[in-house]
Amino acid sequence: MTGLALARALAGTAFAAVASLALAQTTTYPNVAKTTDGTAQSTENFDYGVCHGTDPSCYHNWGIARQKKVLLFTRTAGPRHQSLGTALPLGLDPALGPDNHTQMDMIRLLNAEGIAVDYTETVTNLSNLDQYGAVIFFSNSRDVLWDHGRAVNPAYAVSTTTSAYLDQAKVLLRQYMRDGGGFVAIHNAHGTEYNWPWYEGLLGNSNYYSHGPFQLGTYHVLSSDSSTDPIGPPGTAVTFTDEWYNLVPFPTDVKFLAAVDDSTLAGKDSGHPGFPNFHPIAWCQYYDGGRAWITTLGHDLRDTEDLSTASAPWPGGAEFQKLIVNGIKSAMGLQPFCTTYAFTGFIAPIVNAPGFNAASAGSSVRISFGLGGNQGTSPFTVTSTPISCLTGLPTSTGPFDPPTPVDIDYDGGTQLYHFDWKTQGSWANSCRELLVTVNDGTIRKANFQLRGGQGHDD
After folding, report:
1. Domain 52-332 is in which class?
2. Which of 15, 74, 369, 392 is deepest in the core (most CB within 10 A)?
3. Span 3-32+341-451: which CATH code?
4. Could you tell me if 457 and 428 are in contact, meaning their C-beta atoms sit under 8 angstroms apart?
5. What confidence tens digit (pLDDT) does each residue in 385-412 have?
């Protein structure tokens, strides 16, 4: 399909041909503007072929009786964090050494909640997973689900048993999630299985790209959740030291739990622009039948240390421990998981992204949707950003637009929220994404193709 045909298919109007031609004329080398916001680098926005997002209907409750127990998997097949200590011997629950800080700390933290912990770095021990309320990946690296070093047995060439697979652990993890399992990814779990798309989707359509220096920063709680409420209500600020991962692609269709303020970071990776507008560090979603809770924090061994014996408690350590313990409990189903308002979708004639809506630049567009009842007078904010008319991906090379002032109306009869989104005349012959940031931690999107119309900004 040609670019022109693709644009017409996406947009459905003749204007798309004009927009795609303009795009081609302005973005050819060397006139491509430098990207200054990392979210514009989210060049992948797959659905991974599975049910995912914040809708609980994606969860499979098949009545499997799981124990109040987790499996902690800390295998590394590349760089190894100091917090993990010496690689563990083969087997389930082997003897721990004095430098296996993460393993000992997680056992202590979870045992205090009445949760039993099995731990392993042996890939063949990722079996019988249905006994566990959650599987925790903590600072793994590279292809940890591949059975390295075991030669292919020719006798297995026609075998249909999982013993023939050097990557059988991938099959077992996927099947575990499909029957309603819980998954928790902490820190360098993002540096794992880079080239397995299903795993990237499990992380919320996100992947590790780089990080800046290990440095102090301030993150904020974004939404009320059983994993963040013990820290404080939305807006609560926490000072913490970490590597603050840059992510490409960027998490989508998830509930955002916390984000770092990039303005509080002294330095960034020189090969990535960072996320000056929005830099999430914790989120959750349903994925392929299971529950997934994710944070990029957790680099330092002091993050999980015993606070009752520490001579100088690590700043933000108490909050981090509350975050991961309660994130694990939510993924296990021991407390509410990833709760959001019951979003109806945008009401027709507006269609939800990735489809396109036609509008005249300079006009007002009526936006309506439900949030499962009356959630207060200001349950969301509204902004927008330029996007490609071809791909629907952000094209902004600067900070996103500030929130657009709107008058929010709630109709108790229909249980719908309404507002009029005022477009600008200067947006003629371009495409924009409307972002409704809801107080429950979700971001709802609709794409618009703006024709020349009103010709002025009011």
Report:
1. alpha beta
2. 74
3. 2.60.40.10
4. no
5. 888 888 888 776 556 678 889 999 999 9
